Amino acid sequence: MRPSLILGLLFFRRALSPDMCRDILTQRLAQEYQRFRSKVVVENHAICFQELPLAELNMHYHCQEVQATGWTQSDLDAFLSSQYKVSKPSDAPLWIFYVLNDLADGRSCLVANIDHCIGDGITMVQVRLTDGAIGGCGWVGVTAVLQCRSVAE
Predict the structure, then answer these.
(1) Which residues make Cβ contacts (< 8 Å) with residue 32, sequence separation at least 6?
(2) Least CB-packed of 29, 40, 59, 126 within 10 Å?
(3) How far is CA 43 from the centre of its chain?
(4) How far apart are CA 94 and CA 46, in angstroms?
(5) What is the pTM of this model?
């Protein structure tokens, strides 16, 4: 079984800059929340978090731009379904954000793929509510699809 995931979608009226998203994720997630800068390790037969120095986080891995020009809802759904098959490296925190610009309806989307061990859906909503909007991009809101499920390999 793969771990459970939380997939969150934030939609915007304008295109998102991947570099701006990386800066905001560094400031508002990695700096503020220890679990977003921690990897999962096994110590003495126990699973725990090991905090990494902020400088060791590869933000180009944690925030990736995906070519999504013209994607319809069906394309977005297929992308979300594919996320349950993505294996994350064991030497990094278990989260990735994807920047999807120029969808068929003109909006852009920021997709959060967060391993459930970092927090449950309610915790992630709290993080979202406390971090403020992504400046200047016309935040439309969350599509309330915080999906949690496990799938067999």
Answers:
(1) 131
(2) 126
(3) 26
(4) 18
(5) 0.81
